[in-house]
Model the fold of this input.
Amino acid sequence: MSHAAKAPNRSTEQRPIEDCRADFPVLAQTINGEPLVYLDSAASSQAPGVVIDAVAEYQRHDHANVHRGVHTLSHRATDLYESARDAVQEFIGAGRRTEIVFTRGTTESINLVAQSFCRPTLGAGDRILITHLEHHSNIVPWQIVCEQTGAELVIVPIDSSGQVDPQELIEKMDDRVRIVAIAHVSNALGSILPLTEIIQAAHDRDIPVLVDGAQAVPHLAVDVQALDVDFYAFSGHKMFAPTGIGILYAKETHLEAMPPYQGGGDMILEVRFEGTTYNELPYKFEAGTPNISGAIGLGAAARYLASMGLERIAAHENRLLAYLTRRLAAINGIRLIGTASNKASVQSFLLDDIHPHDIGTILDHQGVAIRTGHHCAMPVMDFFGIPGTARASLALYNNEEDIDRLIAALAKTQEIFA
Amino acid sequence: MSEKNEGKAAELRELYRELILEHARSPRHFGKLKDATHSAEGINPLCGDKLKMYFRILKNGRIDAACFEGSGCAISVASASLLTDTVIGMSTADALQFFSAVISRLSGRSTTSDDADTVIDLGKIRALEGVKEFPSRIKCASLAWHALNSAIHCNDQTVSTE
Done:
């Protein structure tokens, strides 16, 4: 567990975590004649029935455009969409619903901050601070804004375990740094960054902090007010919701000061050819008809996660991760990539000199789905001097049997390549 | 072992035939060709496979030497290794015809309108045909061949095609 995470008691029901596997219909199938073992939730997680049903119910009974019509369906769609925003606000402990902006996902959320918050004030000599373990979505938007403004991207190194030394990061926070943009949890390595310490040090120097929370929200209790983070970005599809929907949480004072990211319908109060008045928050940042069904799915996923209790989910996954790591480490010829002491949900590895794609194919043949490749974190691969890894990632629906199946399938892989 | 499991195991053995594994472990003509006349890089950005193919093509259009370097999975490395073994001594015209036949046989799609693709004897390259059962791996097997095609075409002016 991250010491950055507060522990609000959001869990009312106390269903055993082990029971929730049955909530995910996709898991009840065979792949290549074997029961599916899904160990790729860090790439995209599966959806529980309540999320699938919420989206289907909306499409079947309540669909219309939001914030527009006077008719019944439009009211219903608007209510569902806005109540999803409330669910997300509660899920991450935001102070105001106006601070929850629906986006297409983490990537769009980060691009929005780079372009609307940073670009207008950045200039030559300014610096943006990121770390070596970032996902491409927390690298490339900053490279683009640096190119546009002449600012410089500064990279904080990682150690051989795949962790960032907060002191090293803090030392780089000089008076030219305009924003610190860091992951909460590394997607390739699983390292949990010590956010509280970093954010506090940044604020002592009046530097705002953006956190890429894509890999954190389905695994850890996140409280944006306790963290005092300026921007927190995440995606629906990593937390059991559909693809194409995500969130930018931002402090209201920042959102007020920022120009719109995109122009269009819904983000305006009044449009005249002489000039346009923008809508209030958060609609100023939601141009065009939004992904209504995706937002409703995300709201349902947030409620589902809260009902299971993030603390219990984290405890379950930590037990599983410890078991996974122990079983993997016992294999002859294994090399674990990402061995930080504070980790969540993922374990990357290499096996003998077998290329990760070959591992992935042989595992899939036995019904075991993992991710192979560079995990959209090529600088991390360069750091370890490898082209890619095999990565098993966990979610609340996984169990020890899944891990046993993975281990057996890896033995089969070694047999073929022996 | 059940019939189902035997069938599955056979499919995997088809993909990872001994010849493939052997070429993946000890690729032929691995390294840079210093006096290459033609070269091309094959990159699979989604997976990170990266192979550079080098060819020395004589004035009469004959491929005199072929080498490759880079990193990739067993299928892509074995395919590149088998490619070098196969095209050395071929004319570029024959190599291009071979390329077309390989792609059509691996993907099950013909790249030309005639049936020449199905007539050519692929020889050792037949060992790659196991990928047909593994759609996501077809691009691994064909990567080096696309690089060959690109290397020959991008240097079109300097190559006599007989």
About this structure: The longest strand of chain B covers residues 49-57. The interface with chain A takes residues 4-5, 8, 11-13, 15-16, 21, 46-50, 71-75, 77, 134, 136-137, 140 of chain B (CB under 8 Å).
